[in-house]
Amino acid sequence: MTGHKIPISVLVVIHTPDRQVLLLERADHPGYWQSVTGSSEQGENLRQTAVREVREETGLDAEKYALTDWDLQFDFEIFAEWRHRYAPGVTHNAEHVFGLELPQPLPIQMEPREHLNFIWLPHEAAVKKVFSWSNAAAIERLYSAPDSG
User: Fold this and answer.
1) Span 7-12, mean pLDDT?
2) What is the pTM of this model?
3) Contacts 24+ apart (CB under 8 A), 121-124
């Protein structure tokens, strides 16, 4: 194990049938809001990464709810301030998007080293609040989803 992050990650948009979206505020950047994200670990498939990251960042068991691979990938340049986490020369990441539908907004248990706060917002407001363009684009997918119920 080199201690470097793998440049393959997941983004999990946690939402309800009425399109409320869970956002988390980063501890290392107060004011930066995002969905659940995280890098794959050696030997994990993407679904396993999504389940692990949801558990670590929210305390929720993603396997108890509808976890769906959205078959959507974003390739982006890793922010310079976070490149030290990756092997020398690694500058880009492949982010794979999943959705996790909960029956209603649920309280979560945050990992305080990673997140300061959480909020449930209507998807339109969540798109505007997240700092990452890929996160905003993923949440926008909820716009085109047919209404539930």
Assistant:
1) 96
2) 0.91
3) 121/20, 121/21, 121/23, 122/19, 122/20, 122/21, 123/15, 123/19, 123/20, 123/21
